[in-house]
Amino acid sequence: MPGLTPENAEPLLRAEGLYKHLYQPSLAFWRARQPRTILRDIHLSIQPGERIGLAGVSGAGKTTLLNLLLALNGADAGSITCQGRPVRPASTRALRWYRRLVQYIPQDPASSLDPRMSVRELIREPLVRLSVEGHHGRRIDEALDRVGLDQKFLGYRPGALSGGQAQRVAIARAVALRPRLLLADEPLSGLDLPVRAKVMQLFNDMSRLDDTAFLIISHDLSVMPRLCERTLILHDGAIIEDRPTAALFGAPEHDHTRALVRAAHPDLAIMMPAPAANASYPVA
Amino acid sequence: MSTASVGVSPSPALRPALRALVPTLSRLVTLAAVVVLVGLLPWLSGRDPALSILRARAGDQNPTAEALDSIRAQLGLDMGPWEKLGHWLWGLMHGDAGVSWISGGPVLPGMLQATGVSLALMLAAMLLALVTTMALCVTAVRRGLMGEPAPTSGALGATLTALPEFLLAALLLVIFAAGLNWLPPYGWGEARHMILPALSLGLPAGGLMGRLFSDGLTASFSERWVATWHVAGFGRRRIALAVLKRTLPSLLPQVGLVIVGLTGGAIAVEQVFSIPGLGRATLGAASAQDLPALQTGILLLLAIAVVLGGAAGLGRTLLLGRTLRAGAVPVTRHEPHHGRWQWVVPVAVALLLVIIIVAGIGRDPLASNYLRLQPPSLDLPLGADGTGRDILARVSHGALSTMGMALLVVSITFVLGVLIGLMPRLAAGPIEVTNATPPVIAGLLVAGLMGPSASGAILAVTLVSWAPLAAHTAALVTEVQGQAHVRITPMLGVGRWRLLSRYILPSVIGPVFRHAMLRLPGIALALAALGFLGLGPRPPAPEWGLLLAEGIPYLERAPWAVLVPALALVLMSILAVSLSSLWRRG
Ligand SMILES: Nc1ncnc2c1ncn2[C@@H]1O[C@H](COP(=O)(O)OP(=O)(O)O)[C@@H](O)[C@H]1O
Ligand SMILES: [Mg+2]
């Protein structure tokens, strides 16, 4: 499906025809293992500076897709390219260039921080490991500044941080690399409302100031209008919508999207027109 | 979701299905290697039994060259090593384990009968160990359920663990059979025959498991989710069950080891109580150099151990498999605990040991300067042994040699265990097979090859003692790899070495070191057991196991000859265990 930007611009990240199957171990070992398709025919392109939301109910395959895009797992079919270069699971060294360009904000920031390291060591780790050039101390200060954390936290260990602070450290760790694209898996779930608002503001600022692209995953559609100019709906392993957020909220094409929108904005959904019938997609 | 592998693992290009096969291949290769080693034993030992067999069969026949040659041809001794190995394997597959070099009769039927006896003894011991374990965990569970988990002192568990099977067996024999006349001293076939052997075998195992479980349960009870469950009003029974389920997977490998260790302990116990079991038969075969019987005995003992170890591994996979895949194993945080009293026990015990060593180090451990079994006096504080040697001097010199040997073994095995445990897939086979080899069996093998000696005992104990530590390391590595902060490392560009040294080792070294220290008394006792069974240092070396063995015939007349070395072993065990709980603060 085409994105919003002109066709001639080279996308930052492009995925074409991705498939992922899961071979579930059958309970009886003599039976053949039945493959289950978790992702089917995923096409996706992300332009520089673009903010994209990826929504879908739990189990839709969001995390699986993310792991493919991060080159942590390999796809069973299809290809991923970043600025024209192929991306697939490889050694740490071979993927350094990609890790500098594309970074990740984990779902549970507190447990993704090594309890033995100080905040300074945590943020410096990828700078050193990915051979980032330049003054690391300055980058660390900058990153802290960007996420709005005081310098005094540099000596803290994760155990002494609150949930919101830990999330900021996780973001700072990614941001210090000045990536072109940030992939975030449910970055807001687990945060209380005031912190949530602040982190959303932070994402908006970063996108505006640094021209960083975002792919934000959420099972909750209500964050999309505030964060993302484009929203993708993943349902049962397939992308069923890929449109500007406003258009999507205004006129969802699928029953499933409609249900998601209704869950996020009850008042809005009541006034919504009936969805356009789409015969190609079986509605559950 | 990513499964970052560490250490020597197959290249990423290797298909996942193939990678999953590596442990199985490793197991098969190791088992094959052990079977080949056992099969080559007669050839490796280079002994010629023709003369002794001739004597056994026809004492009056002249040992002519023809007669000897015909016996050699009959036994296949004239074959080359590989031909002989093939012959032996072919026979095994057809239920023929060869003929005894002593009696000339087939080896297998008797050994199988003895196996049944040993299995019955081990089953009884396991039940007893289970009861002991539960009794030792009562405090940990009670405190945990009251919401204030605290490590129990474990002194009782440590003492039980410290009691070597052969010492316990001998003590029980003398107290309940010879002294009180309550139970028969030896024999087999009735339930009352089984009580003392099962106690000697089951109590040390139960002590070790009790310690491991009360430690593990306390750690699990200290986790945050337990407090949450308390607040949420879950029932005590439900919380206790959940804590047990959380604790079991990381302990199952060690429980497997304890159970497997029973096969080794059974050898000493069967020896003391004259039980016609597999261990005693194999020990007899080793001392008589009846290599076909020794080969069969070792194979059967290993088979029992492999099956038991495999069962424990299967249990762990079933309990943990799903959780690991989902990456949801919570981090166990060991809260440091402080207390001045903790220093009291190790300092007091160390002081006692130092006093014994200092008091006896200037005295002569080898000269028979006193009367036989001379009782303790001012001049001779701990009495004299059966040949009039100064027991104080012997225990003092023995302390240095036994502790030195044990420390050497522990250091080597700690390093080996951690290194090998970092490659869980490749090491799966060697770990399981050496785990399944109690030190006494390794001692039998080494002694069969090189003859009994101190270095042979060290080699034998080292050969099999790294495995529990490697298994523990491997289990911890798998757990650590499931934690979120480790699973994110590929994104941070953390390479294999850094992952190992900075992320995985720090979580692993501590518990494994503690485990290694916990095993120090066990290793000292394994060395002592080899000495006791005549597979270690030769007399008149002042080695603790030998000292005990030499003292046991006089236990009624001169109890000091046994009690002094026994007490010394118990002291050292308590020292090691209490030191390792102090170390946990780090
Ligand atoms: N390791 C795994 N084992 C078994 N099933 C899995 C595994 N990973 C993902 N799945 C299945 O794949 C589907 C997609 O999962 P996931 O990508 O985590 O969904 P989401 O992140 O959208 O909630 C789910 O149905 C889930 O059950
Ligand atoms: Mg998910």
Automatic annotation (TrEMBL), chain A:
Q: Which CDD domains match?
A: ABC_NikE_OppD_transporters
Outline the extent of the ABC transporter domain.
Answer: 13-261
The reply to whether ATP-binding figures as a keyword in the UniProt entry is yes
Which species?
A: Kushneria avicenniae
GO terms for biological process, alphabetical: transmembrane transport
Q: Return the InterPro entries for the record.
A: AAA+_ATPase, ABC_transp_ATP-bind, ABC_transporter-like_ATP-bd, ABC_transporter-like_CS, P-loop_NTPase
Q: Which SMART domains match?
A: AAA
- Enumerate the GO terms in the molecular function aspect: ATP binding; ATP hydrolysis activity
Q: Which domain of life is it from?
A: Bacteria
**Name recorded for this polypeptide:** Peptide/nickel transport system ATP-binding protein
Give the Pfam families listed for this entry. Answer: ABC_tran
Entry keywords, A to Z: ATP-binding, Nucleotide-binding, Transport
From TrEMBL, chain B:
Q: Name one GO molecular function term.
A: dipeptide transmembrane transporter activity
Concerning its family, UniProt says: Belongs to the binding-protein-dependent transport system permease family. OppBC subfamily.
Q: Which PANTHER family match?
A: DIPEPTIDE TRANSPORT SYSTEM PERMEASE PROTEIN DPPB-RELATED
Lineage, uppermost ranks: Bacteria, Pseudomonadati, Pseudomonadota, Gammaproteobacteria, Oceanospirillales
Q: How does it sit in the membrane?
A: Multi-pass membrane protein
A GO-annotated cellular component? plasma membrane
InterPro entries, from UniProt?
MetI-like, MetI-like_sf
The protein, known as: Peptide/nickel transport system permease protein
Naturally occurring in which organism (per UniProt): Kushneria avicenniae
